[in-house]
Write a structure and sequence with these properties.
The chain is mostly helical and 142 residues long. It has helices at residues 2-18, 24-51, 56-76, 81-101, 107-111, 118-138. Helix 1 (2-18) packs antiparallel against helix 2, helix 2 packs antiparallel against helix 3 (56-76) and helix 4 (81-101) runs antiparallel to helix 6 (118-138). The two termini are 33 Å apart.
């Protein structure tokens, strides 16, 4: 499923750059819109998954898949250093969240009374959200 999403996102990015007789600014704006939509989807998905986590391994796998999507966007945005840097920062936040997911109690532990640290959980979602906002701020037509 994530491979299909990556292929589709890549096709959208390329179509934004190669659309008809668009000027460079219009193509850049189209590409940025694709990046913004993809980053918003990634950010929302990560935050929702973190807030509803019940299986640490599934959460870690899901976050790793989101990180791969960000990597693919970064490859497409390699010619814009500000966007590339912002995507790298988002990828770092997703990696940190994936590492944090390893520390979560299992579903059985939660049933036995273990709790997820709400402050750490909130810090993960806030970090991802802030990094995603930065991507949307720097990705604009020149």
């Amino acid at each position: 499923m994530s491979s299909t999403a990556l292929v589709f996102a890549g096709a959208l990015l390329l179509s934004g750059c190669a659309a008809g007789s668009d000027t460079g600014a219009e193509a850049s704006a189209d590409s940025c819109e694709v990046v913004r939509v993809e980053v918003r989807d990634i950010s929302n998905g990560a935050q929702n998954a973190i807030l509803t986590a019940s299986d640490p391994a599934e959460l870690q796998s899901y976050l790793d898949g989101l990180s791969e999507r960000v990597d693919a966007l970064g490859e497409e945005a390699a010619d814009d250093s500000a966007v590339s840097d912002a995507l790298d920062a988002l990828d770092e936040k997703l990696d940190a969240a994936s590492d944090w997911a390893e520390t979560l109690p299992s579903e059985a532990d939660v049933e036995a009374g273990a709790e997820i640290d709400a402050e750490a959980q909130s810090a993960q979602t806030e970090g991802i959200q802030a990094a995603a906002v930065k991507v949307t701020e720097v990705c604009k037509a020149e």
